[in-house]
Design brief:
single chain, mainly alpha, Growth Hormone, Chain: A, two-stranded antiparallel sheet, 2 strands, globular
């Protein structure tokens, strides 16, 4: 009984505290327009702060994976300090930008604080609880990591209405006041998670020899194309997810549901979190965890292909069947996007063992960093370069053809990812037997 309680107190609860805090990075679209208006820049210039945050998340995870491997207390403390400091710093430079309109210092300061400093907190905070969870929940590793990573996905659904309420009620300067308030709240949450987070007593003792191996030695213990395959299919899944999710609100407006954007955004966030938990728990029952990725890619190809063939985004307004199909695509991609994240650490542990999993997982998260620079930016390029912007009945500027054209890119990438999953990532010798 005591051991069972320890699983939750020492692993699950702190993981949720950490991931529910850092996952709010995905609330960016709630306040990005307000930031741009307050400091006097176009929204496109401010958007790079989010791309930098995701990039430095991946890079800090890649380069600080060994720190997490050696000392989760140090890494979780770094995460709490950097995330809160980055958020508070962002608030300061938004305030400064309000006082000095169109100041490059304000814009660069937001890039540094929200992108670089918060990015370090994101990467270390994301990694810190994952291995600990897998150690405490050895029999259900997928369920355990899915639970934590679901917290990252659910953070948007939880925090979005809170942030919107703060923006609506804090009055003049509410945008920077919100950042100061949230910096304090999230520091308390993450610091509490840091204090609670513990590995099972004595686990590290028999693992010293394995942990002494270099990361490349561990990766080369299997054919190198195996790891390249895992990295590439992870990168493609995130790139496609970001490409669609970044245009999600405008796609919803295209199919005539402008008044339900907030509701659908919350539902898609629930699917994102549900995919993280559901797909990873399902994978625990499979002989080869890579089967989950095949299912994610097949579902994504099927729904994307159907929306392309029916011109669902272009012709969805007023057509109930097409509207349901486009919403199905949004929800399936969100679920697959989340499921891709939650299954990576357990897939890596099946192939390479637990000894250096934090470091290997960290290097693999570099795919997330690069996808953060390509996914939404490529989608924006396609939307701005194809089709034509029109004004709908609600006064929204939309480009149905441009959003539809994004799907041609994502369906090709999903097909490539499926082929990689089939031909490059082979079942590991240590795959568990089917239950």
């Amino acid at each position: 009984m005591n051991k069972n309680q320890n699983k939750w107190i020492c692993a699950a609860i702190p993981a949720l505290l950490l991931h529910c805090s850092i996952g709010t990075v995905y609330c960016w679209s709630i306040f990005s327009e307000d930031i741009a208006k307050h400091i006097g820049f176009k929204k496109g210039a401010v958007e790079w702060a989010f791309s930098f945050a995701i990039f430095f998340l991946g890079m800090s995870a890649a380069f600080l994976g060994n720190v997490v491997e050696k000392d989760i207390h140090k890494s979780s403390l770094i995460a709490a300090i950097c995330f809160a400091l980055g958020m508070a710093g962002t608030g300061f430079f938004i305030y400064y930008g309000g006082q000095h309109q169109k100041s490059p210092i304000a814009l660069i300061g937001i890039y540094v604080c929200y992108g670089f400093i918060m990015g370090i907190g994101l990467g270390t905070g994301y990694l810190s609880p994952v291995k600990t969870l897998m150690l405490w929940f050895e029999d259900r590793k997928g369920l355990a990591t899915g639970l934590a990573v679901a917290g990252f996905g659910a953070a948007k659904a939880i925090a979005s209405p809170i942030m919107q309420a703060l923006l609506d009620n804090l009055g003049d300067g509410g945008i920077y006041k919100m950042f100061f308030i949230l910096a304090c709240v999230y520091f308390v949450m993450m610091f509490t998670g840091h204090l609670l987070l513990k590995k099972p007593a004595g686990w590290h003792e028999p693992q010293k020899k394995e942990k002494g191996q270099s990361i490349m030695s561990v990766i080369k213990s299997r054919p190198i194309k195996n790891y390249i395959g895992i990295w590439l299919m992870f990168y493609i899944n995130i790139t496609c997810g970001l490409a669609l999710i970044s245009q999600e609100k405008m796609i919803v407006k295209c199919i005539g549901l402008a008044g339900m954007v907030g509701v659908i955004s919350t539902i898609s966030a629930v699917f994102n979190a549900g995919g993280r938990l559901g797909f990873s728990a399902w994978a625990d029952k499979m002989k080869d965890r890579n089967t989950i990725y095949k299912l994610i890619f097949i579902l994504s190809i099927a729904f994307t292909g159907l929306v392309i063939l029916t011109s669902g985004i272009k012709d969805g307004q007023g057509n109930i069947a097409l509207t349901i199909l486009v919403l199905g695509l949004i929800f399936v991609v969100n679920a697959g996007y989340g499921g891709g994240f939650s299954n990576v650490p357990t897939l890596l542990s099946d192939h390479y063992g637990m000894g250096s999993i934090s470091a290997i997982h960290g290097i693999t998260l570099s795919a997330w960093g690069f996808a953060g620079l390509t996914g939404n930016q490529v989608a924006n390029l396609i939307v701005n370069s194809t089709g034509a912007f029109t004004t709908d009945s609600h006064g929204n500027s939309i480009n149905p053809v441009g959003y539809q054209n994004v799907l041609y890119l994502t369906v090709v990438l999903y097909i490539i990812a499926l082929l990689i999953s089939i031909f490059l990532v082979h079942p590991s010798k240590t795959d568990k037997k089917a239950d």
